[in-house]
Predict the structure.
Amino acid sequence: MHPEHTLNCSEVHNRHWRVFRCSMLLHESVEKPVSIYLEWTWSRDKGRAESRTASMRKRLALRLSMVIGNYGANTSSSTVEWALAELTRHPDVLKRAQLERDSVVRDPASLPLMQAVVKETFRLHPPTPLSLPLMASEACEVSGYSVPKGATLLVNIWAITHDPASWPEPLEFRPARFLPGGRHESIDVKGKDFEIIPFGAGRRVCSGMSLGMRMVQPMAATLAHGFDWRLPAGMRPENLDMEEAYGLKLQRAAPLMAYPVPRLVPAAYEGRC
Ligand code: HEM
């Protein structure tokens, strides 16, 4: 990360970018403060010098990448980035999610559409596509396959969440699947429904699952609610690059570049940072 592009939380605060309430969100989730950095890539056409002193109302290109420097945080920030990319690509869903939260500001837990957006993001872009490697502690047979003792096993989470037998139109972003009346309305992502196991399942299920959920859901909801997300001039939502970069984690091949346009009254952004 280039130092010029790095602002810590207090700098964000000083520059009136309080809206992200970044430390507040994370301090709610962890016992002690964590060093948090937002990585910003400024809009080239406005000029770097001007951009660095720009006020909140100026539009800046934002690379949404919250770096805490560990795997758990990267999976969470990458999920938020994917969710915002999908919402930017589907402005109708973003608008409905904003209206949903407009009506229930005080209880983010009761945001069925936003919860469905997060589930659909976990399904379409599972942050750990091949889970983590596991080793068979003894020889066994699974569905007719012999697994020798000591074999390394990877669970293809991506393939499971893209299986057309479970997920009609598996490549489409359809949060409505998880809404009341949708085919998957009662499906959860916490390891009991094997059609979607972004955190794994069973004894070795992700031990940071609660923390991950507590970071992803409110961050995605806050960023979606606080801003309209506009693409650089000339780029249409349907042309947004959604290529995935595979590895231990599934991240965007190209970082999301979008303009956060404040949509609430200024007082709404005066959170404590
Ligand atoms: C969106 C967020 C996250 C996702 C999608 C995710 C996903 C996963 C997956 C798929 C596994 C492998 C589970 C298995 O083998 O069945 C795993 C394991 C693990 N995760 Fe996460 N994770 C996330 C966040 C976190 C966070 C925030 C932490 C810690 C702060 C964390 C810590 C761990 C640890 C320690 C394991 C190994 C558990 C074990 O083998 O007993 N994860 N995670």
